[in-house]
Design goal:
This protein has 3 helices and 4 strands; from the N terminus they run ααββββα. The chain is α+β, with helices and mostly antiparallel strands. The chain has one domain: Beta-lactamase Inhibitory Protein, Chain:B, domain 1 (2-Layer Sandwich), CATH 3.30.1450. The chain has a 4-stranded antiparallel sheet with strand order 1-2-3-4, covered by helices on one side. Helix 1 runs antiparallel to helix 2.
Length: 125
């Protein structure tokens, strides 16, 4: 007599459950990394850039040192140069931290948290 009961689930069921559990783990890890690492790091970096811009002797070198990276993009409007920094997040649907710094002759003129707006760009022309 066979006392072993037959499972109604085949091996494919357990493979699917394993794949779904792994997918859940990866997505949960991405959210955790985003919230616990990228968000605080981006905020700290933006604060460091703003503090560097407040200094009366603020220039490109001091801002680059505070940001600890090169700008994401650079724009030129007449005698003004705008450097845009973007500290992204791991998930594409979430907005990262942005800061724009305006220079004239290598000295900081103004800085914008969240990036420079089109109206501010028009004022530079």
């Amino acid at each position: 007599m066979n006392t072993k009961s037959k499972s109604p689930f085949g091996p494919a069921f357990f493979i699917r459950i394993g794949v779904l559990a792994l997918l859940l783990l990866v997505i949960g890890g991405a959210f955790a990394y985003d919230r616990l690492v990228l968000v605080p790091t981006g905020k700290e970096t933006v604060d460091r850039v703003f503090d560097a811009c407040k200094s009366p002797q603020a220039d490109k070198a001091s801002v680059h040192k505070a940001a600890q990276c090169e700008p994401t993009s650079t724009e030129t409007f007449g005698s003004f140069e705008v450097e845009n920094y973007s500290f992204g997040r791991i998930l594409p649907n979430l907005q990262g931290h942005k800061v724009s710094v305006v220079y004239r002759d290598g000295k900081v003129v103004e800085s914008f948290q969240g990036g420079i707006t089109d109206a501010d760009r028009a004022d530079l022309k």
